[in-house]
Design brief:
alpha/beta, Rossmann fold, 7-stranded mixed β-sheet, 17 helices, 47% helix, globular
């Protein structure tokens, strides 16, 4: 089993009484993480239960908690001893937070749970378990994790993170980074060797997301309408969200588009980058930029209409988002900085970087009071310019 970067923090928390909550998009590796945690725990008095199974949902839907206890005992759990219960996809059972709270408060039970909706986990779930849980968000593989899954991780890989262009690193991993951008970071897609099978897996992930997560987490029944919207959004990745234009293209009204986009963000399919400004009122009034959470999903949905520059910018957005927060900066004149990372670092994305790009970035960052900056590129520039960070070093 491949060990991901988030596992160490999960292991440390798995020994605490608090509920360990792992949330993220479907098939991103949450179930594998739970099974890894269980394999590392000394306590043999434990159960793993998948809420996608109807009998598990029926059991936890009971309002008589002692009846649930009896069912769990029949499954082998001993309530007279410290126990561990792992629950997958808890958002599928409406009253499960209340059930967890009852058993958490009544018995010596450690819960490890997963879910695919940040809204559910951070709002409804949090309300029921205030102070009793910690939420860990799981994303598709970072590029360093991608290399590990492919068996290509070099010794001391951490020292290459954020490193200024290194020709040896670039030459060794350029092909791997191209694959990473093309097919994304879903673990099963990364492990599949055949490109055609990778594409089929990505299509299946998209279908499962819309037909299972969306339908179960919302009252949206028109999956065809949502799929149409998602494809239009994919074609506009990296652009500002213009509800009027999107409405004219899709025939979906603005209010419903806003509702759909909120759902897509809460279920981890997309990210929205807010404008960077020192004036909070102006930030609220400006449009967000939209990025997809995985470039494999993005490429599959967009169907080849995106430029390589759009896909590369989206890849950098993903890499940055897994490490912190992203915003963008744009003046009324149109001058912009692609990303403001963690509120204090200006980052410009160019497929082929040049000295003039760096000079412009420094000037624009200084104009808004930001001292840290980073120019990132995808390809080896002509000449001897090397004062940039290759995309494959951002992890």
């Amino acid at each position: 089993m491949k060990v991901r970067g988030i596992y160490q923090a999960l292991l440390e928390h798995s020994t605490k009484k608090q509920v360990t909550v792992i949330t993220g998009m479907r098939r991103v590796g949450k179930s594998t993480a739970v099974k890894y945690l269980l394999s590392q725990l000394d306590n043999g008095n434990r159960l793993y239960l998948d809420c996608e199974r109807i009998e598990i949902r029926v059991m936890f839907s009971s309002t008589h908690y002692e009846n649930i206890k009896n069912e769990l005992e029949l499954m082998g759990l001993d309530f007279s001893l410290p126990a561990v219960i792992a629950l997958d996809e808890i958002q599928l059972v409406e009253n499960l937070p209340s059930v967890i709270k009852y058993f958490y408060d009544t018995y010596d039970i450690k819960f490890i749970v997963t879910g695919s909706s940040s809204y559910y986990m951070k709002n409804r779930f949090s309300e029921s378990l205030a102070g009793r849980k910690r939420i860990f968000e799981m994303y598709p593989l970072s590029f360093s994790e991608f290399l590990d899954f492919k068996g290509k991780t070099p010794p001391g890989v951490a020292k290459y993170a954020w490193k200024v262009f290194d020709v040896a690193w670039y030459n060794r991993f350029q092909a791997a980074y191209t694959e990473y951008i093309r097919f994304g970071g879903f673990p099963e897609v990364v492990l599949e060797e055949n490109p055609a099978d990778k594409v089929e897996l990505l299509r299946d992930i998209i279908n499962s997301y819309i037909e299972i997560d969306v339908k179960l987490l919302s009252d949206y029944s028109l999956s065809e309408e949502l799929y149409k919207l998602v494809r239009v959004l994919a074609a506009r990745a990296g652009n500002k969200v213009d509800y009027t234009k999107i409405s004219s293209i899709t025939g979906i009204n603005r209010q419903k588009i806003a509702s759909y986009i909120q759902l897509l963000e809460h279920t981890y399919l997309i990210y929205q980058a807010t404008p960077f400004t020192r004036n909070i009122d102006r930030e609220i009034s400006q449009q967000t930029k939209l990025y997809f959470a995985d470039t494999g999903i993005l490429n599959t949905l967009a169907g080849g209409v995106l430029s390589s520059g759009q896909v590369f910018e989206n890849a950098i957005a993903i890499q940055l988002k897994s490490l912190g927060s992203i915003q963008y900066y744009q003046k009324r004149t149109g001058q912009e900085i692609d990303f403001i990372f963690n509120g204090d670092t200006a980052i410009e994305v160019k497929e082929t970087s040049a000295p003039s790009d760096l000079a412009t970035l420094i000037q624009r960052a200084a104009a808004i009071g930001i001292e840290k900056y980073l120019l990132t590129g995808r390809y080896l520039p002509a000449g001897d310019f090397r004062d940039f960070t290759w995309g494959g070093n951002i992890f």
